[in-house]
């Protein structure tokens, strides 16, 4: 089989004239190899944020022709986003991208910039697995304005080398991204203890400088625990008995992600691997490259609706990190349980307090309280670590990270344990298509968190991730529609005004059941559209998103709060991309999740 396939992209006819600088790029991609066994071709194109695939690319075509917008000032950019598809079933493809400037006569200059322009491919290499696709960009930037017309030519070569498909091929990791993972913040009160967790669930104390603690490039997320009162902190490399643990947490490091559905109309991508780059700095408005995260100036929680500066294809720092001003936050590894509950009914407690909180596997989820009770208990749990009830945007941050190359990169398995016990997973043989609650009542239908099939319910696909994000109890999050007409949450309007705004995500009061444009970017609601209403197997009409058809009911003034994950009996319409709209009151099936946001100081 022939190797070393060349795809050539020629960018040419770039003219500049004083302040009215314009940029025109005409490109042709020539592909020099074709085979029934192996074929790599361009399947999508976005130019300067505008989808151009339909008019530019025919199925399996190897050419793109395009004209850019006008560049009028220094620093202006024109960006071509492309997607390369590998239609092989037996071969992976390693793609190397190199761009060079053409001198007069067509000789290559072996430089990626001239006096007036720079051209930058990103990434410089990528792996396109069999039957999958990968995305990249080519950016041309004006770095100097000329008083006369200047013609520039660039040539970009995409060298494609097929390799025999491995059983578990290595995934492409964004260049340098893993070097920027923020170090987990253990706070200052010595409560959080760094641990590693083996596949069988054994918990071991480690030093925070131990290089085995975490490795997000390998989907090994950092874990930490809080011990029960009176328990002594063990020495490094000493195991910790689960009976001595009160709560377990997983670190979500600060990141930016690539936007794909700002307008919520007809997105180019529905289910896809979310492109994430770890970065402790905040993105700024750079047209075609990144945008400053839309945050409400008055209350900093990212009020929905004001997303004018953000476009599809740009990177944006996730708002969950900005509202608390941190480089990461901790999330309860499991749904919040109720201490010493001996059965599901005992864990239905309307008036529980922070002393009742336990976060660990194989305990009964605390349910049956209103939002205020859950919120207050979470807030009081550990003020030194800024404990709080998980927000909608924080749920979105976990869901997006889970659906990236740093996570399981697919929907997590449903916790179908009908007793609302934490850390369970439906077995592959379980019929998850029904919604009548007739399955999940015994061990023949599910397995626990530290078994092979149990790992599929984790956000990483291994024991280091977060569990119960699909099924189990419905989880209230700290998010509501402003000025609700009715509210059973226990909060009064005056209560909400007194609480620091960073603890809530607040949505536009014009929100309705199917109003995804009122979303907050990053909250894993509107970006999952468009939305469809149809009957499920139980003959009940529901709204569904385009990500695994999870149920999607947006909050409004009559049902002004959000819950996430879905219930144990919801089967395929539960998931980390499920969202619903309860009224905020007491439900025997609704609980919550704990989060910690210790200060960077």
Key features?
disordered N terminus; 5-stranded antiparallel sheet; 27% strand; mainly beta; 6% helix; 8-stranded antiparallel sheet; 601 residues
Write the layout of secondary structure elements.
Layout: E1 5-14, E2 29-31, E3 40-47, E4 50-51, H1 53-56, E5 77-86, E6 91-101, E7 117-122, E8 125-128, E9 133-142, E10 152-164, E11 193-197, E12 203-205, E13 223-227, E14 239-240, E15 245-253, E16 255-258, E17 276-278, E18 290-291, E19 315-317, H2 319-324, E20 328-332, E21 337-338, E22 357-358, H3 371-381, E23 387-389, H4 392-402, E24 424-426, E25 446-448, E26 474-481, H5 493-498, E27 505-507, E28 532-535, E29 541-544, E30 561-564, E31 579-580, E32 590-592, E33 594-596
Parallel strand pairs: 18-19, 26-27, 26-32
Antiparallel strand pairs: 1-2, 1-10, 3-4, 3-5, 5-9, 6-8, 6-10, 7-9, 11-12, 11-13, 12-14, 13-15, 15-20, 16-17, 16-19, 20-33, 21-22, 23-33, 24-25, 26-30, 28-29, 30-31
What would your notes on this structure say?
This protein has a domain at 5-164. Residues 1-34, 105-111, 167-173, 297-306 and 435-441 have low confidence and may be disordered. It has 601 residues and is mainly beta. Strands 14-12-11-13-15-20-33-23 form an 8-stranded antiparallel β-sheet. It is built from 5 helices and 33 strands.
């Amino acid at each position: 089989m022939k190797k070393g396939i060349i795809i050539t992209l020629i960018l040419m006819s770039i003219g500049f004239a004083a302040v009215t600088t314009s940029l025109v790029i005409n490109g042709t991609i020539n592909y020099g190899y074709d085979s029934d066994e192996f074929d790599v071709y361009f399947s999508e194109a976005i130019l300067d944020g505008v989808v151009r695939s339909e008019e530019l690319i025919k199925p399996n075509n190897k050419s793109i022709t395009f004209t850019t917008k006008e560049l009028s000032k220094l620093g202006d950019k024109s960006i071509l986003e492309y997607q390369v598809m590998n239609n092989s079933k037996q071969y992976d493809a390693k793609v190397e991208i190199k761009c060079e400037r053409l001198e007069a006569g067509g000789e290559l200059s072996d430089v990626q910039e001239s006096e007036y322009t720079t051209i930058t491919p990103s990434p410089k290499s990528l792996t396109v697995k069999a039957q999958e696709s990968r995305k990249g960009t080519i950016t041309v930037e004006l770095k100097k304005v000329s008083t006369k017309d200047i013609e520039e030519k660039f040539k970009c070569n995409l060298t494609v080398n097929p390799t025999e498909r491995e059983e578990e091929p290595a995934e492409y990791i964004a260049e340098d991204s893993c070097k920027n993972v923020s170090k987990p913040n253990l706070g200052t009160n010595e409560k959080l203890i760094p641990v590693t967790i083996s596949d069988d669930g054994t918990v071991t104390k480690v030093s925070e400088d131990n290089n085995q603690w975490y490795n997000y490039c390998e989907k090994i997320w950092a874990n930490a625990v809080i011990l029960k009162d009176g328990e002594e902190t063990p020495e490094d490399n000493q195991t910790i008995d689960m009976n001595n643990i009160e709560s377990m947490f997983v670190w979500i490091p600060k990141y930016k992600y690539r936007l794909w559905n700002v307008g919520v109309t007809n997105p180019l991508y529905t289910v896809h691997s979310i492109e994430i780059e770890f970065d402790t700095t905040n993105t700024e408005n750079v047209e075609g490259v990144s945008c400053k995260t839309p945050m409400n100036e008055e209350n900093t929680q990212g009020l929905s609706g004001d997303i004018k500066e953000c476009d599809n294809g740009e990177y944006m720092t996730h708002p969950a990190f900005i509202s608390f001003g941190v480089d990461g936050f901790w999330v309860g590894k499991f749904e919040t349980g109720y201490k010493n509950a001996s059965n599901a009914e005992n864990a239905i407690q309307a008036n529980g307090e922070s002393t009742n909180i336990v976060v660990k596997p194989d305990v009964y989820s605390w349910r049956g309280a209103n939002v205020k009770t859950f919120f207050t208990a979470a807030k009081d749990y550990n003020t030194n670590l800024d404990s709080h009830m998980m927000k909608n945007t924080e749920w979105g941050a976990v869901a997006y990270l889970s659906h990236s190359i740093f996570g399981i990169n697919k929907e997590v398995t449903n916790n179908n344990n009908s007793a609302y016990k934490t850390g369970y997973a439906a077995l592959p043989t379980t019929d998850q298509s029904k919604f009548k609650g007739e399955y999940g009542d015994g061990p023949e239908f599910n397995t626990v968190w530290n078994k092979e099939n149990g790992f599929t319910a984790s956000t990483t696909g291994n024991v280091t991730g977060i569990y119960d994000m699909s099924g189990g109890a419905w989880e209230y999050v700290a998010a509501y529609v402003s000025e609700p007409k009715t509210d059973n949450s226990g909060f009064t309007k005056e209560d909400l005004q007194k609480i620091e705004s960073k603890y809530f995500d607040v949505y536009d009061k014009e929100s309705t059941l199917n109003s995804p444009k009122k979303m907050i970017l990053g909250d894993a609601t509107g970006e999952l559209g468009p939305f469809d209403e149809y009957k499920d197997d139980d003959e009940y009409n529901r709204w569904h998103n385009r990500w695994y058809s999870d149920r999607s009911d947006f909050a409004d003034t009559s049902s002004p709060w959000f819950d996430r994950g879905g219930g144990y009996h919801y089967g395929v319409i539960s998931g980390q991309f499920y969202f619903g709209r309860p009224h905020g009151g007491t439900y025997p099936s609704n609980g919550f999740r704990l989060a910690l946001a210790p200060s960077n100081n």
